[in-house]
Each structure stands twice: as structure tokens, then as C-alpha cells.
């Protein structure tokens, strides 16, 4: 009954309301306990809404059914081939779609639908291969970034072949941990071709010069990639080089002069068809006849035999580089020795001499660049060391200052503990100073002179006048004689004045004592 009313209402309702009602009906079909009749009626209504003129209605239905295993298969199949805005949720998430259906949609769909399929979780190899073969660049980029996709090596190689000239895809491929050496070499070749086209289109370089520079760069890149490759991956790289026509005498000689003995042996194994152990024995034996036979079986020109033999002899004296970085650049001593030997030989062709001279120039420039880099690195390390020493010196000075401050604090603390002793000592020194002061002695001697005068009844000039006339007390004695001649009131006033002066000195002594204590 409700579904019948819904069908009647939906014919005249606005598009937004129809879309919301369709979303509610789809949820009810998935989650509600409908009877068999109501469920069949609801499914019929949903099938009818597939023909709705508004894509909002179909999009609302697709968003509800996208993640469900219980969605009606007929509705899922219809929504998967709808327009992109409706089909994207179904293509990206629906577990009801078959691999064959997805492969067909990849082949016939647009970029949005291909990208939606490339984002699917746990994408099988068949669909990955379909996207790698016919997918647009954006869908292949989505596929590379989908770490849950089961991307086969041949699919990766196909992506590099089709879209390796695009920087975004190159960078995404190079982030893959298990990327083969052949694919890395293919990406380097794509980049070389792109740069060559750029400089020739802008007329920065002539086409032949640009191609020659690109070929030299590709040779260095090949040796660099091979130096980081071992085992079966190296054999696959050599086979790839042979298939694209780059496994030639110049590349093999560069590998040997760079110290990459593994690439040299693997190239001879692939070209000659001999076993790896047999080739290794001949190479390390360095016999003239056997080595020439091996090089001839590998199809290398006879004019290069002497260069290969001299290079192997030089390698036995100089030794091979064990590091990856050492096996990626030409070794100057070996190149110069091979060039010297070949220049005196009549069997060496002129193109080989030109190649060796180019190798000599390249090795000299590379050695000079590395020397300058080492000097710059030493200067940088020296500057860092000087800065570190300066900072360490500043820190040590800071620690020394803290130690001095702590020592001063300890001295103050010890002084505060010995305060009473120091105070007593300073008081004694102050007492001795004021005892010797003339005015202080005057305060003590004046009352005694007055008492002596009262006992004798008269005051007489003493013989000591001549001795003490230079003493400051002399003036006080004269003044005391004048006071004796006065009446008792004057004498009493003099005594009062002298005692006031004594009290003043006593207050001065106490103030000085307090100031010394505060300072301590």
C-alpha cells in the first residue's frame, strides 16, 4: 500500500524530493523487515526509478547500494553503466561487479569511470592489466598510487612504455620499492627523449648534437642503474638492453672501464650464449686466445679486442671498486692506460680512439668535480667544527663563570659564619685607631688634668712643654691652663663641654660599628 502511494506521488514530486524519497526507499529495502510482497513492490519501484529523468534520483540510489552485498544485481548492473556521476560510487565500491564487467567498462568508459575502477580495493591483475593497456594517464596514476592493487611487472612496464614521458607518472613509478632495473632504464630513456625534443623544439641545440649528448647521458645512466642491480634483475636488464639495441661494444667497454665487472660478464653471457661460470673463468684468466674467442663469439668488433684486454690487465693492477658509487663512473687511470696502448696499435680503428678520448675527457672532468666537492665538503666540515668549538668554548666559559659565582657565594657564606670573629677583629682595629686619635686622647686626659690642678691648688708650666709643643695635645694644655684661672663655674662648663665631645665620639664609634656590620 505504501509503495503504491509512493509510485503515485513520485510522478509529480520535485527532483530533490524524489531523490530523498528514493534514498529512503533504498534504505528500507536493505534494512527493514518487509514482507515478500512489499519487497517485490519496492524493488519494482526502484527499477522504475532507473528511468527517472533526474540524475539526482539515480545518484541517491547508487550511494545507498554502493557498499552493499544485498543490493539488487539488476540495479547495480544498470547503475554501473550510467553516466559518470551516477556510476562512480558503484564502480569504486560495489562488491557485486564481476571482473569481466569491469574490464569492459575500462575499455569503453571515460576517464572518470576508469579512475573509479583504479581506486577499487584489492584490484586483481586482470583489471590492472586492462588499465595499463588502455587506461588514460590519470587512471594509471590512480592505479600506481593504489597500494592494494595487484600490479604485475608486465603491467608496470606497459605503463612506463605508454606514459613514461609524463613527470607525475615517472615520479610515482620511481617510488615503488620493487621497480625493476629495466623499467628504471625505460623511464630514463623517456626522460632523455623528452628533454631532447624540448631543446631541439626551442632551437637551443642542433638535433644531432642534442641526440649525441642524450646518448652519452643514457650510457652513464645505464651503468649507474646496472651498478645497483644484482642477480636475475641484472640479467633481465641486459636482455632488455639487447632487445632495444643498446647492448653494444661502447656500453660494454664503459662498464669495464668503470669497474663494473658484473655488467661486463653478464653482457658477454647474454651475447655469447655461454654459461656464466665459463665466461667468468675466461675473464679472470685473461688469456689472449680464449678472451679473443669469447669476444668473437659475443659478436664484438675485432678492433676492440686490444682495448678489452688492456682494460682487464689494468683492472688487475688497480683493482675493482667495491662500492656502488665507484662502479658508476669512469676510472681515469684505466682509461688513460687503454688509450695509450690503443694509440700505438695499428689494429685499433679510429672510432674506438675517438670513444676512448671522450672517455678520458669525461673521466678527467669527473675526477676534478669530485676533488672540488671534497674540498668544499672539507671546508664545510671545518666551518662546522669551528662553530662547534666556539659554542663549546662559550659553554665552558659559562660554566667557569658559574663556578666563580658559586665560589664567591661560598666565600660570603663562610664570611657570614665567621661574622662574630671578623666583627670583633674589626672592632679592635677601630678601637686602636681611635685610641691613637689626638682628640680622643684629649677626652681622656682633660679630666685627669683638672683633678691634678685641684689637688695642687695651682697650675704650673711643665718642662714637657718643649717636647709636646708639636703634639696636638699642647693646644689643649694651653686651653686647660686658661680654664684653671677662671672660677669654678667656668671649670664646670669646660668639663661639660669635654664630656659632650666624648659622647659625640662615642656615638661616632657606635655608628661606624653598625655600618661595618651592615656591610659584612
What attributes does this structure have?
mainly alpha; 520 residues
Low-confidence runs: 320-325, 419-435, 456-475, 505-514
Count of beta strands: 0
Task: Compute the separation of the termini in Å.
Answer: 106 Å
Per DSSP, the total helix count is: 27
Summing up helix and strand content along with how strands pair, one would put the structural category as mainly alpha
The overall pLDDT average reads 79
Overall 3D geometry?
elongated
Beta-sheet strand percentage?
A: under 5%
| H/E topology pattern | HHHHHHHHHHHHHHHHHHHHHHHHHHH
Could you tell me the radius of gyration in angstroms?
A: 54 Å
Helix content: over 70%
Tell me what you see in this structure:
The chain is elongated, with a radius of gyration of 54 Å. The protein is an all-alpha fold and 520 residues long. About 10% of the residues have low confidence. The chain has 27 helices and no strands.
Amino acid at each position: 500500500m505504501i509503495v503504491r502511494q509512493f509510485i503515485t506521488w513520485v510522478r509529480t514530486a520535485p527532483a530533490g524530493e524524489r531523490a530523498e524519497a528514493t534514498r529512503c526507499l533504498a534504505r528500507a529495502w536493505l534494512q527493514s523487515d518487509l514482507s515478500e510482497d512489499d519487497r517485490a513492490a519496492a524493488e519494482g519501484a526502484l527499477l522504475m526509478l532507473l528511468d527517472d529523468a533526474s540524475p539526482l534520483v539515480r545518484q541517491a540510489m547508487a550511494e545507498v547500494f554502493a557498499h552493499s552485498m544485498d543490493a539488487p544485481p539488476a540495479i547495480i548492473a544498470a547503475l554501473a553503466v550510467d553516466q559518470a556521476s551516477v556510476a562512480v560510487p558503484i564502480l569504486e565500491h560495489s562488491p557485486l561487479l564481476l571482473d569481466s564487467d569491469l574490464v569492459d567498462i575500462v575499455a569503453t568508459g571515460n576517464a572518470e569511470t576508469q579512475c573509479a575502477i583504479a581506486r577499487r580495493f584489492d584490484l586483481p591483475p586482470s583489471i590492472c592489466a586492462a588499465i595499463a593497456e588502455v587506461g588514460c594517464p590519470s587512471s594509471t596514476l590512480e592505479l600506481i598510487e593504489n597500494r592494494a592493487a595487484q600490479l604485475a611487472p608486465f603491467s608496470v612496464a606497459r605503463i612506463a612504455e605508454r606514459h613514461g614521458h609524463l613527470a607525475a607518472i615517472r615520479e610515482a613509478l620511481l617510488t615503488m620499492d620493487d621497480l625493476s632495473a629495466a623499467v628504471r632504464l625505460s623511464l630514463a630513456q623517456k626522460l632523455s627523449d623528452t628533454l631532447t625534443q624540448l631543446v631541439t623544439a626551442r632551437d637551443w641545440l642542433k638535433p644531432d648534437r642534442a641526440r649525441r649528448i642524450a646518448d652519452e647521458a643514457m650510457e652513464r645512466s645505464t651503468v649507474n642503474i646496472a651498478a645497483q642491480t644484482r642477480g636475475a634483475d641484472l640479467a633481465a636488464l641486459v636482455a632488455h638492453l639487447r632487445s632495444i639495441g643498446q647492448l653494444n661494444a661502447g656500453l660494454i667497454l664503459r662498464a669495464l672501464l668503470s669497474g663494473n665487472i658484473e655488467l661486463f660478464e653478464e653482457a658477454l653471457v647474454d651475447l655469447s650464449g655461454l654459461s656464466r661460470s665459463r665466461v667468468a673463468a675466461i675473464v679472470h684468466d685473461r688469456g689472449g686466445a680464449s678472451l679473443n674467442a669469447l669476444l668473437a663469439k659475443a659478436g664484438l668488433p675485432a678492433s676492440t679486442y686490444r682495448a678489452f684486454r688492456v682494460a682487464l690487465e689494468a683492472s688487475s693492477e688497480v683493482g675493482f671498486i667495491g662500492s656502488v658509487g665507484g662502479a658508476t663512473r669512469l676510472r681515469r687511470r684505466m682509461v688513460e692506460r687503454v688509450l695509450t696502448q690503443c694509440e700505438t696499435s695499428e689494429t685499433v680503428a679510429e672510432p674506438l680512439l675517438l670513444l676512448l678520448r671522450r672517455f678520458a675527457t669525461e673521466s678527467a672532468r669527473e675526477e676534478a668535480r669530485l676533488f672540488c666537492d671534497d674540498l668544499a665538503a672539507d671546508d664545510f666540515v671545518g666551518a662546522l667544527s669551528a662553530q662547534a668549538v666556539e659554542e663549546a668554548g662559550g659553554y665552558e666559559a659559562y660554566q667557569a663563570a658559574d663556578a666563580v659565582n658559586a665560589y664567591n657565594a661560598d666565600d660570603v657564606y663562610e664570611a657570614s659564619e665567621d661574622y662574630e670573629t671578623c666583627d670583633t677583629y674589626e672592632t679592635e682595629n677601630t678601637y686602636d685607631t681611635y685610641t691613637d686619635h689626638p682628640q680622643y686622647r684629649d677626652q681622656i686626659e682633660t679630666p685627669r688634668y683638672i683633678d691634678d690642678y685641684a689637688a695642687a691648688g695651682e697650675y704650673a708650666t711643665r718642662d714637657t712643654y718643649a717636647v709636646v709643643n708639636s703634639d696636638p695635645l699642647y693646644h689643649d694644655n694651653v686651653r686647660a691652663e686658661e680654664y684653671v684661672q677662671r672660677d669654678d663655674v667656668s671649670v664646670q662648663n669646660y668639663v661639660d663641654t669635654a664630656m659632650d665631645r666624648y659622647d659625640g665620639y662615642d656615638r661616632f664609634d657606635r655608628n661606624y660599628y653598625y655600618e661595618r656590620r651592615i656591610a659584612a
